[in-house]
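S.,

Sequence below, as promised.
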Amino acid sequence: MTSISRLESAPLPPADLLGRLFYDLSLSEVEYAVTRNYEQLPYSVGARDLDIVVVPAHRSKAVQVVARLAKEFGYLFAKYYTDEKLAQLVLTKRTSAGLAELQIDFITSCQIYGVEFLSAAEMLKDLRWHNGIPVVSQPVVLLDKLLFHLAVGKPLHPKYDMMFAGIAGRSRMALLEKLIPLVGDEDGRQMVNEIRAGRASALQPLSAVQWFTMLVNAWRTQRAAAYLLLPQFMFNRLYDRVKPSGFWLSVSGPDGAGKTTVIELVLADLALAFGKDGLAHRGHFRPSVLPRIAELAAATGAAKTVDVDYSRPHRSPASGFAGSLARLSYYVADYVYGYFRLARPALVDRRIVLFDRYYYDVIADPGRSRIRLPKWLLRAFALIIPLPTYSFFISVGPEVARTRKQELTVGEITQLNLAYGDLVRRGAMTEVANNGLPEEAAAAIVDHIFADRDGAARSKLRVAR
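The prediction came back faster than expected:
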C-alpha cells in the first residue's frame, strides 16, 4: 500500500489544529482515511467526533501525532482510551468563547466482539479525496455501518435510507462480495435489494442462528493476525471491569453555596466533551437504592407519616449514640450497594456519575442526617465506602449564602465551611470558591478534572505536558 501524502497541495503547515492533524499524519506517513462526516473538513468536524481508520501498525504513531499537536495548541486530554479496536482521544481547551473540544477515534478495523469484519487494508482500498484528505470508499461507509448494526441487533436509522440506496445501486457487486460469505447467498442478495430500494432501516434483525453464523463466518474469513483480537477483546472487557475508565464526582457545600447552578454549568461543559449521553447517573446525597428510614418506619407502622419538609434540613433532632450508629450503618450499606448497582456499571461503560452531595456531607454536616457521632468515627466509615474520583466543596461567604437561602444562620454556615474546609485540608475534597460568577466556579471544577485526566493520559502516552 502506498503512503498517503497531501504535502504537494499544502506546502506550508496549516495554522489550525484540525488542518495540522491531517498535514502531520501525512508527514508522518501514517496510512489513514476518514470514515464519515468529512464534508466540512478540514475547516470543522461535521459531527461530535472524527473517525479515522489507520493500519494497526500506525495507530501508535497517529496517537503521538495528536499528543504533539495537543501540546503545541494548548489542548488537554479530557479522555484517552485504547482497546483492541480503537484509540479514543478527547481534546479540550478553555477559550474566551467557552470550551473547545475535539474527539478523535483512531480505528484499526471494523470489528465487533473481537471478530474482524473489515480489515484496515480493506477499508483503505479505493480511497476518495476531499480537500486533500483521504476518505474511505462509499461501499466501506455502508458496510461499516451495516455490519455493526447487524452484529449488535439494532436497525439502521432512516436517515441512511436514501444515501445507502444510492451506494447500493452503484456498488451492488462489491457489497455482495462481502455480504454473501458472511450471511449466505440468499440473505446477502435480499439485504442488498432492500437497501437499493431505500429500505435499509427496515432490515430485520438477524435471528440467533443467523447472527451466530455471521460471526463464525467472519471469524473464519478474517486475516490471520485478527485471530488475536478475540482474546484481546476478552482481556480488555475484563480489565474495564477491574479498573473502569469512567469517572464520578460529587459537589458539596452549605445551603446557599450555589451548588445547583454550578452543577448545571459543569454538566453543560462535560456534555461538550463527552456528549449528551456521557452522564449516566445523577444522584443526590446517597444512591437511595435502599428506601429512606422514614419510609421503612411508615411501611412497618412504626411511624404514621413521612416527613418530606426538605426546606429545613436540620428540622429533626439527632438520634442518640445507638440510633446514630444504626442510622449511619444503614446509610453506609446504601452507599456500598448503590455504588455496585448504579455507579460502577456506568464507570465500566466509560461514562460519568455525578452526585449533588455525598458521604462527605455526612461527615461535615451529620445533623442533616440526624447523626451525632464523633468525627473520627464518621471519617473511619469513609474507608469502606466507595468514594468519588473528584469531590468538590463549593465555598462561599456566610453572608452571601444567607442572602441566597435562609435555611441556615450565618453562624451555622460558618461552622459548615470550617467542617468542609477540614476535609479539604485532609486531602479528601477540593475547594472551589463561588463568591463571584457561577460560570467561574464551574470552569474551575471542569478544568481541575481535565487537568488531572490530562496528566494521567500523558503519563500513559509518555509525553510531556
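The radius of gyration is 27 Å.

Coffee later?
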